[in-house]
Amino acid sequence: MLSCSFKPGVIEAGCDESGRGCLAGPVVAAAVILPRGYSNPLINDSKKLSAPARENLRSEIEAQALAWAVGYADNKEIDSINILQASVLAMHRALSSLNMVPGHIIVDGNYFSSFRNIPHTCIIRGDSLYLSIAAASILAKTHRDELMHKLHNEFPVFGWNRNKGYPTRFHCEALLQYGPSSFHRKSFRPGPQQLNIAPAPAAACRKYPLL
What we know:
The chain is an alpha/beta fold. Helices cover 36% and strands 14% of the residues. It is globular, with a radius of gyration of 17 Å.
């Protein structure tokens, strides 16, 4: 079972993001403050959960959290400041939207920049270790998937209702055939190597080379 908190006795916000490896759409981050002693054995890293499980847990988290918020950095901001900085920007936006101020922040991964001088700790694979980070990963993922479903209705040729903007073969081929949409990240472009990749999980696809 995941640990409730990194620093017991402190109001702690967990942060995570979704969409860093995508070719289209925003990067989305969430910040979650759970009640002291909160426990839910079903909460885990969003990547380890099915879509229905994530949706069920999203409702649970949003109902039970002391505070939660979601922040976005769109594709134009990603192109302007790079995906790493845009991920931190989205986290800062989520944190600034919380209705209470945490005394400590824990972040999935190994990079973050200070938010309002609140102490923070970066934790590699934190979404598999701490409930608040795992909860944030679930909210970030489900809110981003919901948005990509809506954008799919505007640009159905890219299959965003299935691939959510990740570089699947279908998405790569459609991008080469139709060109980028207004939601594509211009700092990535398709290359022939993507078309040789069989339909597989997005993690198996190589990132598009920079323009």
